[in-house]
Automatic annotation (TrEMBL):
Residues 229-410 form the Major facilitator superfamily (MFS) profile domain. This is MFS transporter. Keywords: Cell membrane, Membrane, Transmembrane, Transmembrane helix, Transport. It comes from Thalassovita aquimarina. It comes from the Bacteria. The chain crosses the membrane at residues 83-104, 186-203, 232-254, 260-283, 290-310, 316-336, 356-375, 387-405. SUPFAM superfamilies: MFS general substrate transporter. It is found in: Cell membrane. It is a multi-pass membrane protein.
Length: 410
């Protein structure tokens, strides 16, 4: 039964709870951060700069993060990253409180939005360390046979916290004061750090003697020799680039195409949460029924369909359906690929190979965010807000075609 793992495994329960708590704060900030950006500027390219800055660390630091993860105590890395994120989020609170009036006038200059981008970059840097450590610590907490179930449960809880509860709560908090959602985010990082501090793992033996470049090359070499995982990493790069581009523009799409308020935008995002929860809970069953390859192709079809819906229609209901499909497909993709990597990659290389994988898979996100924000010149405003989704649909179709030819696991 799904609840047994949480009941019987204390360390998993603590990590699960820390993830759910911090993702509640992330769900709040996922609405509050782009909304704050729109209060500082109406320029799509500058708004995209904030999203780009938050994802750029995956390109810059994903590879060294893998070496650091294999050389250090992974629990300590998670703890310290949460503390850093707490401090940085409090800086955003301070920045908002120091601003006399929002929204800023059009001629106020880019200073505030660039400050927000800088803080987003630092938050993203801490996230790189934290997420890589969290993903590599899980196989030492649960049995290999329980990985799909553990990953599915954890990501379902994250979806409930970050999408069902967080976005509507953000809408209420934004209406009361734009600093409030970031204050809540800071509190969740503090609680997450406390829960990770309580985790009691067997004494680890960090490989402090690993020399940086030989260690990194060892991880790169393993990835190069294992073409199935390399192929998934490259496909994930394209998926994440179009996803982050779509999400970067979504806040303006919601305001100007759908006419939503902050509360309405938060409620819209809960449609994605419903898909994510369903995908997380049903993914292990789907994988058992149809296999790894068919599960990945199903996820790719969902990605293509959601982009077409957003690109061709201007309806709140259709947008909600599209976000539902994206989250369900994304959860299925993640449960398949992460569990597969956690089993396949040797434990002593897990941090480094995971970081190489995420360098490709997540490093393309800044390009997607910046590209989506740069599509307006030469297009009308509404056409420019639909265009990223049509481009993304074409890319997802090519990925589906490529996957049907190249993915072979069964």
């Amino acid at each position: 039964m799904p609840h047994i793992l949480l009941k019987s495994n204390r360390n998993y329960r603590l990590i699960f709870s820390a993830s759910a708590v911090s993702n509640l704060g992330d769900g709040v900030s996922s609405v509050a951060l782009p909304w704050l950006a729109t209060l500082l500027t109406r320029d799509p390219l500058l708004i995209a700069t904030v999203a780009t800055a938050q994802r750029l660390p995956w390109f810059l630091f994903a590879l060294p993060a893998g070496v650091w993860t294999d050389r250090a105590d992974r629990r300590q890395l998670m703890l310290r990253a949460d503390i850093v994120r707490l401090a940085l989020t409090l800086c955003i609170v301070g920045m908002v409180l120091s601003t006399t009036a929002l929204p800023l006038p059009e001629d106020s200059g880019p200073g505030m939005i660039l400050t927000l981008a800088a803080l987003s970059f630092l938050l993203g840097s801490a996230e790189v360390i934290r997420d890589n450590a969290a993903q590599t610590v899980l196989p030492s907490v649960v049995a290999h046979d329980d990985l799909e179930r553990a990953n599915g449960q954890m990501w379902s809880a994250e979806q409930v916290a970050s999408q069902f509860i967080g976005p509507p709560l953000a809408g209420v908090l934004i209406a009361a004061g734009i600093a409030l959602p970031f204050g809540l985010d800071a509190a969740t990082f503090a609680l997450s750090a406390g829960l990770i501090w309580l985790v009691a793992l067997p004494p680890s033996r960090p490989r402090t003697g690993l020399r940086f470049w030989p260690a990194l090359l060892e991880g790169l070499g393993w990835m190069r020799r294992n073409r199935d995982i390399l192929r998934l990493a490259l496909m994930l790069a394209a998926i994440n680039a179009v996803f982050i581009g779509a999400m970067t523009i979504l806040v303006l799409y919601a305001q100007e195409v759908l006419g939503l308020s902050a509360a309405g935008y938060g409620l819209l995002l809960t449609c994605g949460a419903a898909g994510g929860v369903l995908g997380g809970l049903t993914a292990p069953m789907i994988i058992r029924r149809i296999g790894i390859r068919a599960s990945l192709l199903l996820a790719l079809f969902a990605f293509m369909l959601l982009q077409l819906l957003l690109g061709l229609f201007s309806s709140v209901a259709v947008t909600g359906i599209a976000l539902f499909l994206e989250a369900a497909g994304g959860m299925l993709w993640n449960v398949v690929t992460v569990s597969y990597r956690q089993r396949r990659i040797p434990g002593e290389l897990l941090g480094r190979v995971n970081s190489v994988y995420r360098f490709f898979g997540w490093g393309a996100m800044p390009l997607g965010a910046l590209g989506a924000g740069a599509l307006e010149p030469g297009l009308g405003r509404i056409a420019a807000l639909h265009a990223p989704y049509l481009v993304a649909a074409a890319i997802c179709f090519l990925l589906l075609f490529y996957g049907s030819l190249k993915l072979r696991f069964d």
